[in-house]
Design a protein that fits this description.
This protein is an alpha+beta fold. It is built from 8 helices and 18 strands. The strands form 5 sheets. The protein has a 6-stranded mixed beta sheet with strand order 6-7-11-12-15-16. A 4-stranded antiparallel beta sheet has the order 1-2-3-4, with no helix packed on it. The protein starts with a strand and ends with a helix.
């Protein structure tokens, strides 16, 4: 074995050993080598297996994955359970106990099926390093905005650094593991000023927490949870009450994926600069707040779809439709029609899948339109004509 051992991970099925030379060695449960040494472009900064029971959390040093000026620590949570394949043309889902995830010092991650010796997922063209830089830049922008507003003159000397990275491998309900990355960045609380009298000046700490999901089709990271929309009517420090009534694979710690990520971000202090409880009360029911609320609901729907969370997608869609129906203006009606048209589909009983998918995350779109969306729109009696229009269209497609 060349190089020094830097990381070790394993379970009852296999063991993996990474070295400082960039090699990855795989062994069976009894210690027999099951693969020739894998030579990676860069050494691994993180290595973890996937577990099928409780989440496994491991703290690792990810300083090599950050910029040279940033010091960071990273941890991982890997949970997975797989749904059955939906058709015979797709390869069977990998056994979660066979999965191994690694993150290189350059910020590229890999997900391997060790036993079948195939790669399941790899980041392409976009690395974790770029996300760390993005979050740091946004934090510095918030710090500098405080200085410009005159709230804290010392803020212009403060910088922001990524302090924690959480990498999670979880089930997306299909056949590819979903990699969720949560980044925590903090501003410095103190700094030394230069002048006639050198000293230490207190600076209000700002903490940002953002979560990303890697989309293998787009080959890009999608941000699903962050500190934005703090003044939305539907922003809360508590969970969104989208708890499971019974156990299920789509939940993490008793909560659905999006709810879990956003609640975690709030719990560890993900806030915008200068935003306090009094600010939220003073904001009031303004036009700007209404538009921010609408944007927040649209984000929640998109993020739920990205995380493959059907319960949350359905719930946020209903809230969104009720919100627009309550407004009743032409722009809101246009958005409602767009939602209904997507769920209704073309005026055909059977539509080719490449033209229109009849389901979203296993939920039949037309059933969702009839049972969930139209009743939400009907809360405004002034929109009853639109409800009747789509009910008639559904009746014609079923006749």
């Amino acid at each position: 074995m060349t190089g020094c051992v830097s990381l070790v991970a394993g379970n009852g099925t296999f063991a993996a050993v990474a070295t400082t030379s960039g090699s990855l060695h795989l062994y069976s449960s009894v210690g027999r080598r099951i693969s020739a040494p894998i030579v990676l472009p860069e050494p691994l900064a993180f290595l973890e297996v996937c577990t099928t029971t409780t989440a496994a959390v491991a703290a690792v040093a990810a300083a090599a994955a950050t910029s040279s000026s940033s010091s960071s620590s990273s941890s991982s949570t890997t949970t997975s359970s797989w749904a059955a394949p939906q058709n015979s043309f797709q390869s069977p889902p990998p056994n979660p106990s066979n999965l191994l995830i690694g993150l290189t010092t350059a910020g590229t991650f890999y997900v391997w099926d060790v036993i079948s010796k195939r790669i399941i997922l790899k980041s392409s063209n976009t690395s974790v390093r770029s996300l760390l830089t993005t979050v740091e830049s946004e934090l510095r922008a918030h710090v500098h905005s405080i200085h410009e507003e005159g709230h804290d003159p010392a803020a212009r000397h403060v910088r922001g650094d990524v302090t924690r990275v959480i990498l999670r491998l979880s089930d997306d309900g299909l056949h590819t593991p979903m990699v969720v990355l949560t980044i925590l960045a903090d501003s410095a609380k103190r700094h030394t000023t230069k002048g006639k009298k050198s000293g230490v000046v207190d600076v209000n700490a700002i903490r940002l927490c953002q979560s990303f999901v890697y989309d293998e089709n787009m080959e890009q990271w999608c941000r699903v949870a962050d500190h934005h929309y703090s003044r939305s009517d539907y922003t809360s420090g508590f969970g969104n009450n989208l708890r499971l009534s019974s156990g299920g694979s789509s939940a993490v710690g008793g909560m659905h994926p999006l709810d879990s990520l956003q609640a975690t971000g709030h719990d560890i202090g993900s806030v915008t600069s200068g935003t306090t409880t009094s600010d939220l009360y003073e904001w009031g029911d303004t036009t700007q707040q209404w538009y921010e609320t609408r944007a927040h609901l649209e984000h929640q729907m998109s993020a739920s779809a990205t995380l493959k969370s059907p319960v949350e997608f359905s719930q946020w869609t209903i809230i969104y439709c009720k919100f627009l129906a309550r407004d009743g203006r032409e722009s809101s009606v246009q958005r409602l029609r767009e939602v209904c048209n997507d769920l209704l589909g073309p005026p055909l009983r059977e539509v080719p899948e490449h033209v229109w998918k009849s389901d979203v995350m296993g939920m039949d779109k037309r059933t969702m339109l009839r049972q969930r969306v139209l009743p939400a729109i009907a809360t405004n009696r002034g929109l009853q004509r639109i409800v009747n229009e789509y009910q008639d269209a559904l009746g014609m497609l079923e006749s």
